Fold this sequence. Notes:
It is a single chain. The protein is α/β, with parallel strands linked by helices. The protein has one domain: Aldolase class I (TIM Barrel). The chain has 8 helices and 10 strands. It has an 8-stranded parallel beta sheet. The protein has a two-stranded antiparallel ribbon with strand order 9-10. It starts with a strand and ends with a helix.
Amino acid sequence: MDSILVKICGINDLAAARAAVDAGADLIGFMFYPPSPRSVTLEQAARLADAVGDRVTKVAVLVDADDATVDAVVGSGAVDMLQLHGAETPERAATLKIRTGLPVMKALRVAEPADVTMAADYDGKVDRILFDAKPPKGMTGALPGGNGLTFDWRLLDGVSLTTPWMLSGGLDAGNVAAAIRLTGAVAVDTSSGVEDRPGVKNPDKIRAFIAAAKGAA
């Protein structure tokens, strides 16, 4: 197996950005969703993007963003890819690919087999699919992602897509290797799994996660 692709999401400070890039992250995510404790402004994202340069793919995480928001994010020059983490339809995803000229990743929240089956609707219409954990109904303070929850990885058994996919949801340095072995994932994503508290990344945890993921290849 080739080296595992690693994405560190919810980057909002320079120390975390540098730790991720220096440790070998392939992608970092900037959260453009104000309710999230990891949210960044356009100005913050631009400064972080300038600091890391072209050594990593910079991903804009958007949640049901309107065209004006998407245009502003892309116009900032801070990102290379869009991650749609809301209820965006396959048609919306395809439209944004054309509108922005950037690759698009679609996140799907998983709790049962039907959630995985939905990936077929996006297959071939986006550049990557991300399987994340669906928060339980009634969970207080639940966010679209970054809730620190895992899902039953066995739900991905036999998943067959032409579009590359990425595993997310409650991954940390302690479980990512097992997740990779069980699912066959070749790309993984974490946010809360490398934090001391919501929105506060720990550079040591970032380095440990990347080492564990890359070591599982």
